[in-house]
Amino acid sequence: MDLETALPGARDEEAGYAERPARMGFFTDTSVCIGCKACEVACKEWNAVPDDLTAFTGMSYDNTVGLGADSWRHVAFIEQRKPLGHQTPGVGDMDFRWLMASDVCKHCTHAACLDVCPTGSLFRTEYGTVVVQQDICNGCGYCVPACPFGVIGKRESDGLAAKCTLCYDRLQVGQEPACAKTCPTDSIQFGELDELRERAERRLERLRESGVSSARLYGHDPDDGVGGTGAFFLLLDEPEVYGLPPDPVVTTRDLPSMWRHAGAAAAALLVGLAAVAWKGRRR
Amino acid sequence: MSAGTHHGMGARTGPPTADSQTDVRMDGTSGLRHERDATPGSAGLGRVGRRPMVRGREFRSYYGLPVLNEPTWKDHDIAGYLFLGGLAGASATLAAAAELTGRPDLARAGKVGAAGALAGSLYSLIHDLGRPERFINMLRVFKVTSPMSVGTWILTAFGPQCFAAAGTAVTGWFPRLGRAATVGAGLTGTAVATYTAALISDTAVPAWHDGYREMPFLFAGSAAASAGGLGMLAAPLAEAAPARRAAVLGAAVESVAARRMERRLGHVGEPLRRSRLLRLGAALSLGGALAGQVLGGRSRAAAVAAGAALLAGSACTRFGIFHAGMESAGDPAYTVEPQRRRLARAEAERDLG
Questions:
Q1: Considering CB atoms only, which of B40, B205, B329 is closest to A84?
Q2: In what order do the strands lie in the sheet with A24-29?
Q3: Annotated binding residue at A260?
Q4: Each residue of B105-152: pLDDT tens digit?
Q5: Cβ of B314 under 8 Å from any chain A Cβ?
Q6: On chain A, which terminus has fewer CB atoms closer than 10 Å, C or N?
Q7: Where, in this chain's numbering, is [4Fe-4S] cluster 2 bound (chain A) (predicted)?
Q8: Min distance A104 CA to chain B CA atoms (Å)
Q9: Nearest-angstrom CA–CA distance, B198 and B92
């Protein structure tokens, strides 16, 4: 059973649009993120995402904690006692670097949330992005544990799943998403995915040449476990340091095997219960 | 708040570069300005001779927070459904087998039990929705990529037959229709009892996903054991022999599948191996099955006690699996470490090849 052909729309290329715009995405270059959180604010303002501030966490400047139904952009802050490239931190004799990164829905090529959605509420747009239809979602919550990145969440107030739409409404009128529009350092860059990937390769090369050997791209590879992400990143440390999975795999990759095992178990159950009744039958 | 710049830790402005970058924005504004193309860390001399050359390969995370978002499923709803759905499905199958082998009382007990468990299942499933009134939206698509969608259609096929079988068995009306519904519910019941394994395995939750090979057999065994328990409880001793055998077979399969899963999963299997509910579930199931087989044919009281133990055991097992999964999702180690090992393996294979 080939799940990708069984379900048109599960995969970007087969989403059924006769003529569609180029696949759009984000390239988030964390090396120039200054942690201003303007992206978080712009996202909340434009998309009317409810307030979710709960407490002072003590995790550097991060009180947003992570992505969820009410946080579609999340700026991570990591303080490390190691240098960044050749930089002199200027804090006494101590090595120090401060990593900041604005996280967002990855808009996966193989999106588990979309695959497992039982109502068809989650769908693939003409831009190759993944969006929840709020009027279809019934709040089953299956997409939440399906996401290998911990992006999508279920909102308490209305019981519906919610996440980044890559500003679907703005894209349709030729505007870039609110977070990219507001980012003061162009850490968040929006555009055609192919072009962003080329740009990211050039940027990576330049950073490495200037001595930032820890720079790496994340989510740019179409051969990874989710088929590459529509929103990808340039990181300065390993993905897990930013709360990202180092090698995410779409859970539905194993679903054909899961169905085979479930089918075998169902057959075994039928045979087993027939057998226990067959002995000592009365007619 | 612009934390980085205040502390002098932010991007240093590098020299303008020649490789002008094209703009790919949709709103037609000009390209990235040169001064934005900063290369932090490129200026300065850095300190010499203090770099650790080899860093230990230990597990790292973002403030110990989980990578995955916590599943929103409530245990009394979803773990409860895993138990009740298994009970409903396997009871319907056992009832059909009993009817076809001339055991009307065991068949009736199974049909009524299945209908009751199914009613509880439907209540739990709808109750767990964020918008219960939109339950019907499940019926607007059929998606083989979504075990919940497939399960919805399995229940849609099973439900009417299960209720019809119970209704006709209790009232005695429409015996032919009742027979057809009994057989139909018996066949579809096996799918009801096992698809739930694919349902929880088709997630990024480490213990649920990685256990997908054994999970359907564990669930099928647990379902058979609970159906056997229900048959022992509700059917006369003379007809309950298949129920007693189903309990022994089910408990054995459940135990073997659970042990295999716990061993094969290695590190990710820790929450399963730690689970007291799973230990209790296994003890109740095996104890109930054994007691039922040895004493349940002679003593009504023993049959009732064994049946109750089997039902409780199956419920404990399902809640145990549910909570072990939640625990594995809540600890970033179970997400990050297996993925790191996978990457290291792939790298080693590349180096060799």
A1: B40
A2: A188-192, A24-29, A231-235, A216-218
A3: no
A4: 999 999 999 999 999 999 999 999 999 999 999 999 999 999 999 999
A5: no
A6: C
A7: 43, 164, 167, 179
A8: 13
A9: 20
Closest approach of A45 to chain B, Cα-based (Å): 17
Of B19, B68, B138, the CB nearest to A150: B68
Residues A73 and A187: their CA atoms lie apart, in Å, by 13
Q: Which two tokens stand for residue B339?
A: 């993925």
Contact flag B62-A87 (C-beta cutoff 8 Å): no
Name the CA dihedral angle for B72, B75, B77, B81, rounded to a multiple of 10 degrees. 120
Q: Name the strand (E) or helix (H) holding A174.
A: none
Residue pair B87/B230 in contact (Cβ under 8 Å)? The answer is yes
One-letter amino acid identity for A58?
G
Q: Is A282 exposed, middle or buried (0-12, 13-18, 19+ CB in 10 A)?
A: exposed
Question: Which 94-123 residues of chain B touch chain A by CB within 8 A?
Answer: 94, 97-98, 100-103
DSSP single-letter state for residue B77? I
| ipTM value | 0.93
Q: Which CATH number fits domain A3-249: 3.90.1150.10, 1.20.1300.10, 3.90.79.10, 3.30.70.20?
A: 3.30.70.20
Identify all chain A residues contacting B65, using CB atoms and an 8 Å cutoff: 65-66, 243
CATH of domain B75-329: 1.20.1630.10
Rounded to a whole number of angstroms, the distance from the CA of B295 to the nearest CA of chain A is 18
Percent of chain B with pLDDT over 90: 82
Give per-residue pLDDT as tens, B160-193. Answer: 999 999 999 999 999 999 999 999 999 999 999 9
Q: Which of B8, B145, B246 sits opposite A90 (nearest CB)?
A: B8
Q: Tell me whether B260 touches chain A (CB under 8 Å).
A: no
Tokens of B194: 């096992």
A167 known member of a binding site = yes
On whether any CB of chain A is under 8 Å from the CB of B193, the answer is yes
